[in-house]
Amino acid sequence: MTTATLPRKKKATYRFKTRPYAHQKEALRKLISNGYGGGLLMEPRTGKTKTTIDYMSMLHMKRGVRRFLVVCPTRVMGVWAEEFHVHCPYMAQVIIWDSKARRKMPTLPDTMGPYDMQVVVINYEAFATPGKKLPSGRRSKASGRFKTRKVLLDWAALGGGRRNDRNVAMVLDESHKIKSPSGKAATMVVSMQGYFGWRVILTGTPVTKAKKIADLYMQWKFLNPARLRELGIQTHQDMQDMTGKWIEKNGYPQFVGTKQFGLAKVREAIFEDSYAVKRADCFDLPPRENITEYIRLKGESARVYDEMAEEMVARLENGEITEASIALVLALRLAQITGGTTKTTDGNVVRVGREKLDALKPHLEDALEREEKLVVAARFKPDMDAIASMADKLGLKVWQIRGGIKRQETDEYIREFRKWDDAGVMVVQPQAASLGIDLSTASKMIWMSLTPSYVDYTQCCDRIALSRNSTTFVYLLAEGTVDELLMETLENDHDVAQMIITDPRKLLRTK
Fold it and tell me: Do the domain assignments include residue 14?
């Protein structure tokens, strides 16, 4: 008599809702093999958000995880909600729990209704907001960040999120936001680590310089503190001492060199927990083309630039004065002048030239003719206003991302831009459009005026980097001016402020 063999149960296979790139599959394999999550140290626009959403969906399918907490910068909260609906194959309830929502909904729902997954998206600022001031002068722990933490942990406990449980997950987007061990938000976020068995950190810039390697300390204290213990690191100072040489000078610690052996140990350890990739290594991503257009200043703008560069003061045709008190302000004034405007001592913004606007106009006309979308980056608000006005007069649909616009408005503009199926232009301020915003339905970006921040520059560029088409970046540089100095420093990751202070002559126009 033979015993019948029971049919083997097939393992469930995860089905991607949107096709991943090869490096995203590699990243997923790393997170899965770690057994608890891990770090995605992927350059901006290599698809960290999609990778994380696929991983969260896999945790739901394989492990039954249903509650997820995402901590991110305020400006990208809406992006997470939209990306979930694009990439998640399950029914996900995404709750944007910003300051306005926290006032209206002081507690989180304890049930999910018909949803498979519940995702709470919260900003870092929520963990820095102090409680109400008490008569004693102390801050209440029944409000502010302490209350926020309690509500989140009560919510997590509904899914099994108690210490040493593994049924809830927490994600830190742009995790370098918690790099400071003395920061209120950083300490509060890290204090929640033990309640979330699955943890992921995302950042394209975990460390910007060798002397800042200790910026990883708080990120790893959240992600995998056991790794720090293996290295014998108990404090932020321990990591500084292991990786760098420091001296006391003028009452402050000064970095004087790297300890290569310690740096190598830390690097090897963190890569045990993380997946890292540079955009240049993602061969299946579309290529990038850089075009520099040199523009010669003429007439009034050339005269004002030269006077300002040489004397730090210039008289305009209308009789008003523009001036700079120090070298760094001088660099800012000169960058404004190359864009065609300057600010007077009376606080007025005066136009002195249109050379860059004239150079930009053919690009806008070309977009209109081809029925394409493009992104224009401008550092100064008068430049943004002029670009938007010119584009509107040409008949282009115009959106803007700039400081002072509410997050909800920004989210709406991004949604409209992505869905728009005709000619249009998104005018962005680099500081406001450098994190987590997806403008990849455009494949061309024009830089009207450059930012001195390397991080803002690279992350702003990467807003279109995931375009399915090859990307084109056009740089409008006033020839022989501060524009070329800024471009040089950004390409070589130099400190523009230090260069200007060391040799102010670099700001003089080469004629």
Answer: no
Q: In the Cβ-directed half-sphere of 274, how many Cα atoms lie within 13 Å?
A: 25
**Domain boundaries, position 450:** 288-507
Main-chain phi, psi angles of 137, to 5 degrees:
100, -15
Q: What is the CATH number of the domain that holds 265?
A: 3.40.50.10810
Residues 422 and 439 in one domain: yes
* Segment of 42-56, 157-171, 384-398, 423-437 carrying the highest mean pLDDT: 384-398
DSSP 129: P
CA distances from 33 to 37, 38, 161, 271, 380 (A): 8, 9, 22, 13, 46
Instruction: Give this prediction's pTM.
Output: 0.72
The answer on 336 and 420 residing in a single domain is yes
Number of domains in the chain: 2
In a domain, 12, yes or no: no
With residue 385 as reference, give the H or E element that holds it. Answer: helix 381-394
Instruction: List helix spans (H) across 95-224.
Output: 99-104, 144-157, 184-191, 216-223
What are the beta bridge partners of residue 445? 375, 473
Which runs of consecutive H residues, i.e. helices, occur in 244-351?
260-273, 299-311, 327-339
